């Protein structure tokens, strides 16, 4: 009997989250509109998200693939919008992503 291909590997246990290894895969989208479109598709498919953040330099959506591996979908903001510290160094943040604002761009 032919079994359909799947991402899920039932013979192996999920990788432990508290040991060294792959943290997640990150996929860069070229524009904010592209990120908005994939977010809309995920919501329409009822695919569970594990997080969404504005990092100051980028906006990111987080989810797990069917094997439980973390996936980050993101776009980089233009460098002129990146937040800077008073000394001119980059200020990285983790703030709540404006999902409604992002979704307003989706096609």
Describe the protein in words:
The N and C termini lie far apart (41 Å). Strands 1-4-3-2-5 form a five-stranded mixed beta sheet, with helices on one face. A hairpin with a 3-residue loop joins strand 2 and strand 3 (58-64). Mean pLDDT is 87; it is low at 1-5. By secondary structure, the protein is α+β, with helices and mostly antiparallel strands. The chain has two helices and five strands, in the order βαββββα. It is flat. The chain is 17% helix and 25% strand. The chain has one domain: 2,3-Dihydroxybiphenyl 1,2-Dioxygenase, domain 1, CATH 3.10.180.10.
Keywords:
107 residues, alpha+beta, 2,3-Dihydroxybiphenyl 1,2-Dioxygenase, domain 1, five-stranded mixed sheet, disordered N terminus
Fraction of residues in H or I helices: 10-25%
Structural class of the helix and strand makeup?
A: alpha+beta
Secondary structure tally: strands:
5
C-alpha geometry: flat
Distance between the termini: 41 Å
**CATH superfamily (homologous) name:** 2,3-Dihydroxybiphenyl 1,2-Dioxygenase, domain 1
What CATH calls the topology is 2,3-Dihydroxybiphenyl 1,2-Dioxygenase, domain 1
Instruction: Give the percentage of residues in beta strands.
Output: 25-35%
